[in-house]
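Why predict the complex rather than its parts? Because the way molecules touch one another can change local conformation, and only a joint prediction can capture that. The input here totals 932 residues.
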Amino acid sequence: MARASLSGFPEWLPDQRIVEQRVLDVIARTFELHGFASVQTRAVEPLGELLRKGETSKEVYVLSRLQADEGEAPADEVDRLGLHFDLTVPFARYVVEHAGRLTFPFKRYQIQPVWRGERPQDGRFREFWQADIDVVGDGELPFHLEVDVALVAAEALTALGALGLPPVRMLVNNRKVVEGFYAGIGLDRTEEVLRVVDKLAKIGPDDVARLLREEVGASEAQVEACLALSRLGGDVTVVDQVRDLADRYAVVTADDPARALLATGLGELSALLEAAEQRAPGVVAADLSVARGLDYYTGSVYETVLLGHENLGSICSGGRYDSLATDGKRTFPGVGISIGVSRLLSRLFSADLVRATRSVPTAVLVAVVDEDRRAASDAIAATLRSRGIPTDVAPTAAKFGKQIRYADRRGIPFVWFPGSDEPGSDQAAHGEVKDIRSGEQVAADPAMWSPPAEDLWPRVVAVVPQ
Amino acid sequence: MARASLSGFPEWLPDQRIVEQRVLDVIARTFELHGFASVQTRAVEPLGELLRKGETSKEVYVLSRLQADEGEAPADEVDRLGLHFDLTVPFARYVVEHAGRLTFPFKRYQIQPVWRGERPQDGRFREFWQADIDVVGDGELPFHLEVDVALVAAEALTALGALGLPPVRMLVNNRKVVEGFYAGIGLDRTEEVLRVVDKLAKIGPDDVARLLREEVGASEAQVEACLALSRLGGDVTVVDQVRDLADRYAVVTADDPARALLATGLGELSALLEAAEQRAPGVVAADLSVARGLDYYTGSVYETVLLGHENLGSICSGGRYDSLATDGKRTFPGVGISIGVSRLLSRLFSADLVRATRSVPTAVLVAVVDEDRRAASDAIAATLRSRGIPTDVAPTAAKFGKQIRYADRRGIPFVWFPGSDEPGSDQAAHGEVKDIRSGEQVAADPAMWSPPAEDLWPRVVAVVPQ
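Output of the joint prediction:
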């Protein structure tokens, strides 16, 4: 019985999957060129691990065995298994569990699906792939890695431009800046302020102002200061604008810790923006409204929009965290960023931005003259494959017109027609190969002939708007 | 808090993951060279889909949302979601669901994790990776694809020998042969007979004989015939031995359908064995005891053992099926085979058969002279990476000895020491690169120098027993 698709669980057709494979190849290669080691974690974690940071409990899928063993005691709540909802929490657990056999700072990348039981929307799924990098230190982690992680992700996204991805803009902020600023103007419940400001893009400044008054108890001047801060952004000159704003709202008279936090944060933000301007000009910009809802960030935070597709939301986010991974004795501070691969792909497909040059890996289809001579076609195919040329053999010895249509419908560019190999003949007639796009057909030897390099494997190309 | 590993959910360390990546690369490349297109299906299926073939209900993990929306009606049993327990059932559903946008015969490969709630044992996990190929036709599927699928899998496993995998033996049988034989000796409940014979390796011939008597009601002569058949195997001469046995047990006097089924099956088995001897000499052998428990097989069936590690069980199994995928009107017969990647890897690791040459992708570590000159090291690294050389930069400007240890502990073969670049100097002193294995150190230019090809990326090599 045919079933309708499950909403929120996207599946790609073979030609779309080729796009996905190339996208993942580009991302993984960029990560590996920067020395990140691949890690995969199991899909499940104990609920106690998943819910440690609260907030997301609603989104977790919990597992149970359809028929648990008789007499099997039901698991404690914390031991019940759930599917991971991101790759950061399982990685933090992996680091703690395997710390004795890892070397720190530990740089890993991780490309896997994650699951969230939320309501599906455009670009928001219940099962989706993420591509993460994190660097985790043992006890300490130098700030410059907050620069590296952002720029590696920017480099990966920029490299995807060759496949047809529109340019991106990475928006950065620093938790120390906003927390120092908030504390400096007398708002001490900085986490709550952050959670409200994080809603700015969704609910607008008026509602943010209302929530700041109602939920955080902010004064009019404090509300005004928060909103003024959230409007700042741009290049490294933003640092002076924040200082001016802090002066205007008398942060200078605040207690030392707040001022020190703000100053440290501004130093870091400035270093990030300057390095980015050198190493990835035009890609990274400050945006003091970027808050990132998650509690655990403590320094740089990142969000990324696809230019012309800002309504898709962030396609690459992350930040610095200090106490996500800890075994009670040791703490492993880290910084990470996550590319939303499925979100990117869904837009590439829905906006028809890219396509694969064919739907199969195959470059050559070897025709079959009649079923008694299938072995001759198999031998030609084996020779081509041994030379690295992806080759298929026609499934039936149908009329050649039908065999050519088999190739054409899949986008296979070449069809090989075996010759009439006479046993014992000195000069075996290997046959002829036809480019079914141009119709050109030439005599060829499978031990010698190669397709043009651009036809060897399917490629992903940008769709040129009509 | 540190948590113990979850039994049955293996996770690899970074150097093991490199082995896994190479194994998957070799398998995927072999599949693509044969024209199989990559497909991935969602991790979940409705229970109605998963349980269609019965038998496995005990193994299914069922999902529920930790906090379902208020007022959300509980899902019907058949609509509840479970994690897939293999890749064949989801693929059958994918084919039916997307049939209108696929081209048939459709050749796909699929490499994903699957989940089964069974008790973990050596080589048997609750989460494990499979690498499958299937060819599915629309209404019909020529027999020769049963040959191709087996030989493509054999080729992939043989190619893994270059990484250190021991040789394999693929054991093949044909459902038509055994079902025709059983029916020919008067045992009509062939599925039950198959299920009993499938236990041969586990419980031995005496218990199989007892179960045949007790559960299938077989006579002594019938038991003897079944056990005699199960002992046959080897090269293509097995076909005559089966014919002799059939004569001895008077299958010749059986009804026409049974004899015809046996004859067709023997023709297919013989064709498979002969093609295998030509195209993959020494890898494939007949084994008439291979039954494969699953009901849906109708022709060739395959199992594969790792030589010297037969106790691991089958590492690559599959067969021909005729009615697994159907939408009521159309039926899509297929043939497929599945490599148990996690089972293979677990043995490669536990028996210490292979190792990666390092635990990171990095070929070069660029040292940092002092933090003020980190940008110079970053620039050298960027140049090397732009030339495709995986490069890391030391995380701190520690003493060079400590920076060399950073490389050494990860197996990074080269450390680059930046020169004292004088701004404005014509001839920039790019520095020197040291092979930390030999100690050899030479002056080098990051725009020119390359590591030896065998050091560019980590490799997987066989461990030579001491």
